[in-house]
Amino acid sequence: SGPNIPLVLYRQTPPPANILDDAYTKGSHHDFSDTYPACPKPPFEILPPPDLTLHVSLGKLVSEGRTGMIFECECAIPHGNVMGFKIPPVVIKIARQSRTKDISREATAYECMTSIQGSVVPRCYGFFQARCVYFVCSCPQPTYGWRLVDFDRAERTTLSLPRAQSLIDYFDFGPVSLLILEQLGDLFKLGEPLPDGAKSDMGEACSDLAQLRILHCDLRWANMLSVLPGGLPSLASPFTGKTYGWRLIDFDRAERTTQALPATQRYYNSYLKRVLKSIPWGDPIEPWD
Question: Which of 26, 100, 107, 167 could be a cystine partner for 127, CB 3.0 to 4.6 Å?
Fold first, then answer.
């Protein structure tokens, strides 16, 4: 609770893909079949940032976890939208104070999965950051202010305070980091049979991830969501040509591997069957179970 505080964030380039490399890939015991596959051509591409500003107002908290919080939001382009861009239903995933590294890693994972965004995983519309500095000022009635500093323009950022106030403390909370993601639907209902086609959709979605040599590393009930009714149409999988009614989310622990396809597929087969089997029983399996 408290007053509305405007934040200005700038779209960032995610870290390089090799930060996702697993222990096997970093090792030296490879054979001739260990290599990254050629990825299909992405179905869409996020263009370089134009001179546009997206106004985002946070709404209801949808969920929260180890890495961050996901909010519904309302978006608008206040000016300069000469092309008539329309904003699809999106959510904002904001990193917790100590989890900036995790969400930047997730941004890299989405960058590696551009070819299956909108079919296997949600569409990702960018990774944004700004530096958040908190100033505490002494005065008869203490006031608190937030100031955002763009990394590239920090030397030109100034702070103006009324003469009656003196600066007594300063906190740098580091970057505020977030992802703008396609809004999805609901989780599987615990204690009920899986919807028709859901088991097949999840199996083929995991096979598509295996084709890209992406290991989810946090495969669980809470990370499987349905397509949003009335949202953007699903895209066909570049591997199967099918459209799926379910998506996988939360890739902050994802890894990339050079292991051959059969080994990568075995990883998904071993986890997915247990996860899906536990849902109708109402007691979902966790990765560590």
Answer: 107
